[in-house]
Amino acid sequence: MDNPMLVGAIAAIVGVGIGYLVDRLIKGGAYKTRDEIIRQAERDAENVKKDLELKLKEDMLKRRESLESKMEEVRGSQRERDRELDKRESQLEEQQDSIRKKEKMLQGTQQKLAERVKSMEAKDAELNRLLKEEQEVLYKTSELTRDQATEQLLKRLDRELTDQTGAMILKHEAEVKVDCERKAREIIGMAVQRYASAHTSESTVSTVDIPSDEVKGRIIGREGRNIRAFEKATGVDVIVDDTPGVVIVSAFDSVRREIGKLSLTKLIQDGRIHPSRIEEIVAETTKEMEEHIRKLGMHACEEASVRGLHPKLMDLMGRLHFRVSYSQNVRQHSIEVAHLTGMMAEQLGLDGTLARRCGFLHDIGKAADHEMEGGHPAVGAELLKRYGEGPEVVHSAAGHHDDIRPEHIYTVLVAAADAVSAARPGARRETLEKYVRRLEELEALACGFPGVDHAFAVQAGREIRIIVDSSRVNDRQAARMSRDIAGAIEQTLTYPGEIRVTVLRETRNVEYAR
Length: 514
Prior knowledge:
By secondary structure, the chain is mainly alpha-helical. The protein has helices spanning 4-27, 34-142, 146-194, 214-220, 225-234, 254-270, 275-304, 311-319, 330-347, 352-360, 376-386, 391-399, 409-423, 432-447, 475-492, and strands at 206-209, 237-239, 246-250, 324-325, 328-329, 452-458, 463-468, 500-504. Strands 1-3-2 form a 3-stranded antiparallel beta sheet, covered by helices on one side. Helix 15 links the parallel strand 7 and strand 8.
């Protein structure tokens, strides 16, 4: 300690302490020697000195901590200011980027405006030329005779009246089209509102659970004789792989696949797996499946309120229970189309019973399209004609996909109900890869037409919106383009339901008042 004041204070305290101790010793009658008294006083003074030094150090530490906390607060406020500055700097950079983009857009707009001005100037020049030609024609007409002038005037009036008549026809056609579309939407909406059906997507993979992997060896048999006998008896393929606890049954015919699945389940439960037992189980299951199919067909007829159906057609309707289209059960789809067609027919004052029959049997060709040549509309029409159905029912099956020109109103109603049933949310599904590829093909097909600037597939691929260049495509060409693109989609792509084609053409004239 080199502070003079501190040393003096300590010396004063030590002197007071020594005096106090000497006084106590004299008063207490102590007989200690002078050296002992001095040593004791020095020790006491040293202790007092150490206590004072500790107090000073504690005070210094407290001051140091206070200063450090204040410094930390200053550093924190400085960091906060740095972050605020960085944020403002990034905002300024974003604003500068936005300004640069707007400048580029403004330059592009100015360039387009300059081109538009040039085009308008060219059109003005062409208009002046036509006016001059018209004046020359008028000058020549003034030199004609009365009959010649009258004849030319009548021809001109005839052309003008023809144009006005065509415009009126187009106007009335547009009004009638809007009215028809509104009524059609009301009829379809009313039918959909009246009939509500649950929809679930079904899987087309048939799997058989096995209790343990040891059963796989018994299914295969010695040198594969059991699995060969089973595949020969059922007409399916049995896939035995490394997947634990599962055996896969695969077949193109869904009924055969179901028979194979049930037969294999029975064999596993029975435990006796050998060729003769396999034949017995398969024959028994096939008979049970035929009876089950017949019951399914009868229940479908009752649910759709269709009477007097030929037994063969009833069996085919039962087989549709095992057929799916984009994971939608075709039997349930046929029942729904029957109800929707009947409701729409009743609203239009038609025969609801006949309409339900047409809708119920429209997809019956899918139950036999693997046995007969042709698509399911042609196969279905042939089957219905063979088993005595009326011309309306036959034509509805043949033309519900617009393969032929509709000749009956029931065919149009069936096509509308079929599209509504397929377009319901949850009714059909497809893989993500197919979905993305279909959207890309749809947009690429539309962009291939001349005059198309952009094409966007929206509404999950059920609508495509096409933006055309107004300088290259006029209104009539846009209407024709929508029909051409719709036809190209029908001929080129495969898709569920229907796709709406919308062509957008817009002309903008911009001027600035300064």
